[in-house]
Structure formats: C-alpha cells, structure tokens
Write a structure and sequence with these properties.
The structure is a single chain. The chain has 148 residues and is of the alpha+beta class. The protein has one domain: Nuclear Transport Factor 2, Chain: A. The protein is 33% helix and 43% strand. The chain contains four helices and six strands, in the order H-H-H-E-E-H-E-E-E-E. The protein has helices spanning 2-11, 19-38, 42-46, 65-78, and strands at 49-56, 63-64, 81-94, 97-110, 113-128, 134-143. The protein has a six-stranded mixed β-sheet, covered by helices on one side. The longest helix is centred in the first third of the chain and has 20 residues, at 19-38.
Length: 148
C-alpha cells in the first residue's frame, strides 16, 4: 500500500508552472523593455532586472547588478542603438524560474542614417518575484553578424 502511494505521488505532474501564462507575462515584460529601450530610458530597462542580475553581452565583459546594467544600456542607446525588437520563440521552466529563448533585431543609427543592422539570438533566465511579476535574472545574447 505504501509503495502504491509513493508511485502515485511520484507520477503526479507538478502544476506549479503554467508555460502559456508565464510566456504571456514575459512577452508583456519584453514589450516594456522594447518601449523603454527604444525611448532611450535606461532606468526603465534596468527596472526589469533583479538586483543581482548578470548580463553576458557579446564582445565585452560580464555585467553584474543594476548599476552596471543601467550604465551599459545608457551607453548603447546614446551610441545610436534603437529599433529593438524581441521575439520570444519558447518559454519553459519550473517554479519561480523561466527560461526564454528568442531572437532580436536592432539598428544603430548615426545622424538619422542606419550604420548597422543587427540580428541575433538570446536566452534570458526570468525569476518570479514575490508580487508575481517576472524580472530578468540572467541574460545572454549573440549576434548573427559575421566576426570581422
């Protein structure tokens, strides 16, 4: 009898992660991210990250914490980065963590002219907060542009 209970419990799927609902919430956060980024609002972008966030951008060192994230975003948008589009391809996870796989595109403009068009891929680890919002805990992306 005890073994039957153990088998039943171990075979019962956990319902602590609703991938469709979480994906919707993450896509809403991505909309906020794109709006803030494209408006050059580094502070609003930063607020979509956890306090202990780690970001791994291409071709530069690791960035840790909100202060470094804000400085990095501010430098990007002041350098002409804009027209950011994030496209979620998949979200999966468990409990308070979700893993998003997606693609991005953005332009870099100088004097109103596009000087670079970039596309690439990303993975974001999202962390559910006590108020049920989702914030970025870790972010890594890479460009599809050929290396010089």
């Amino acid at each position: 009898m005890i073994s039957l209970v153990v088998i039943t419990i171990s075979c019962t799927p956990k319902e602590d992660f609703d991938a469709i609902a979480v994906r919707t919430l993450i896509e809403e956060q991505n909309e906020k991210y794109m709006t803030a980024y494209n408006s050059k609002d580094a502070n609003a972008v930063t607020n979509l990250h956890t306090e202990d966030v780690i970001v791994l951008p291409p071709n530069v060192g690791m960035k840790k914490g909100k202060k470094e994230i804000q400085e990095t975003i501010a430098a990007e948008v002041q350098g002409g980065a804009q027209d950011l589009v994030l496209t979620t391809l998949d979200v999966y996870g468990s409990g308070d963590f979700a893993y998003e796989v997606g693609q991005y595109s953005l332009n870099v403009k100088q004097n109103g002219q596009i000087t670079m068009q970039d596309t690439g891929n990303y993975i974001v680890i999202w962390n559910r907060q006590t108020n049920d919002s989702w914030l970025m805990k870790a972010d890594i992306w890479n460009s599809n542009l050929p290396k010089d």
